Amino acid sequence: MALSNDIVLRPRFRRRLPHTNEVVLLAFEEARLAATQFIISRVDDHIFIRIPKHKQHFWSPQLHLEVRPVSEKESELFGLFGPNPTVWTLFMFLHFGVATLFIGFGIWAYSNYVLDTPYGIQLGVMGLLIALWVIFYFAGKMGKTAGSNEMQALHAFMEEVLAGAFK
Question: Cβ of 151: how many Cβ atoms within 10 Å?
Fold first, then answer.
């Protein structure tokens, strides 16, 4: 699986399968019992494949699969690579905090501009917040690169399970 250099930090894929969703879900249930290098959990039509805790690092990805029925003989697999939900929540919280501060300082700068008082400090802080957003972006990009080998392993494992299910 080739990873592009797009801005996408959480790569997604979609695939049509020649079996019902129950056959595919059952294959992952069976793989869960035999798997030693990955932790597999299932909730309804969703499958989560994770790296074991003792092998994880801060940027370790997980693979979320959703298997939906398309017809009586076909299903569709939706995949999403992403960081640990705790890491993702932290990043979203930080982005939301920076966005809130940016808007607040923007309002403060505009108010000072209208009142004809100095507003250079507010513009400076807004510039720093933009720089912080860029740093967050590159940190996420670095995390994607750090987890790239694990993403490849997760994808290869998924392919292996699917190939075994369709024999």
Answer: 19
For residue 152, the Cα-to-chain-centroid distance in whole angstroms is 14
Model confidence pLDDT, tens digit, residues 131-142: 999 999 888 888
Q: For residues 31 and 156, give the distance between their C-alpha atoms in angstroms, rounded to a whole number.
A: 13
Q: How far apart are CA 130 and CA 17, in angstroms?
A: 43
Could you tell me which residues are beta bridge partners of residue 47? 42, 65
- Give the DSSP H or E segment for 71: none
Would you state the pLDDT for residue 88? 82
The answer for residues whose C-beta is within 8 angstroms of residue 161's C-beta and 6 or more apart is 27, 28, 31
Backbone angles phi, psi at 18, to 5 degrees: -85, 20
161's tokens: 């399970």
Is the distance from CB of 25 to CB of 46 less than 8 angstroms? no
